[in-house]
Amino acid sequence: MEENKTEKIVSEINSNVFFREFTYSKNDFKDLDTKQEHEFADNVVWIDDILFVFQIKDRNSLENENDEKWFDSKILRKAVQQIKSTHKYLKSYPHIEIVNEKGHKKNIIEAKDANISSIIVYTPNNSFPDSKRHQKFYESKDIGLIHLFHSEDYYWICKYLLTPAEIEEYFYFREELYNAHKKVVNKLPEQYVLAHFLETLNVNHIDPSYIENLKIIEKQFLDFDISYLMNNFNDKMRFSNDPTEYYPIITEIAKLNRAELVEFKKRFVLILEKCKIDDLLTPYRIYLPRTDCGFVFIPLHKSKAEHWDKALFNYTMAQKYDQKASRCIGVIVYEMIINNETYFDINWNFIESDWVYNSEMEQLLKDNFPFRDVKMKKLDNRYKE
User: Fold this and answer.
1) What's the whole-model pTM score?
2) 342 touches 368 (CB < 8 A)
3) Which of 71, 144, 194, 303 is surrounded by the fewest CB atoms within 10 Å?
4) Phi, psi of 141 (to 5 degrees)
5) Using an 8 Å Cβ cutoff, are 301 and 275 in contact?
6) d(CA 207, CA 199)
7) Residue-wise pLDDT tens digits, 329-366
8) Alpha helices, DSSP H, located in 161-304
């Protein structure tokens, strides 16, 4: 099926915010019994137990119906029905293969038990009335609330909320605010909902002064922007056979909120600096109870580079065990010189398993504890502390 203009915009936004590995825009599939072609959804974002399904509509300039009729027909009927079909496909098919922006295929039915957010994004005429634009949801008896977004509003939400975890939180907050103040919320612009979210998650009140948040809050994007690391992430990985081997690593990073990303980036930058020191340095680390995942960041001088794989495995295992975590990610960095040019060699490790008491590991950690204390400044996932 041919993409419309808004589909391309949403696909680009989703690829940037949610990463290309988790964004799917090639979602046609064939019913094996009837041979009929179906579209699972216009766009899909799938990260572990997070699933966003999108239907996207453009106003065709040749359509003669007025704005209200177009909205009722194309958004509240057709797009809603397509969203319902997506939910039906998840329940009734054993296998539906869709393709992400990296060209990798996944069976979306594996996400049927995920937390599903249903979203319609649309681009109407310039004369589109605010009374329709401010309608935040369609209430379905079958699948619950379906989010409605003017494409400009969706763009600005993703502009302010740069992490997948934060956007998921915003969708839940939006539903709670709507359920608490239905008549009022449907008269307010999306900017108010966003500004309220940035101030507080408390939905027991409406405060017009919150709108000022969008004017006065300075967005410290550089503090948690790791796009330079995530772009072409797989180019920095050593694989055995599977080109998606790094997905579990990037999944855990994608689930971080902005406060956690600040701490992640701080330690990653540190090991880029510290690996130049010819000394055995103590690794940096964090542990996130929210996702039950540990991270360990290891600087290694180039003179010891031949031992990088052993050091990476041992430190990752030790951090996982010490934090009693079910998952742990290790990253080790050292300098290397190629054709008189200096580069950073970055290697990653991911370990996932249930924590089990190990007397040998206990003794090793007791005799030679290899870490600093786990310290992480506690921040709310807001622009304001």
Assistant:
1) 0.87
2) no
3) 303
4) -70, -25
5) yes
6) 10
7) 999 999 988 888 888 888 999 999 999 999 999 999 99
8) 164-180, 182-185, 190-199, 213-216, 221-224, 227-230, 247-254, 258-274
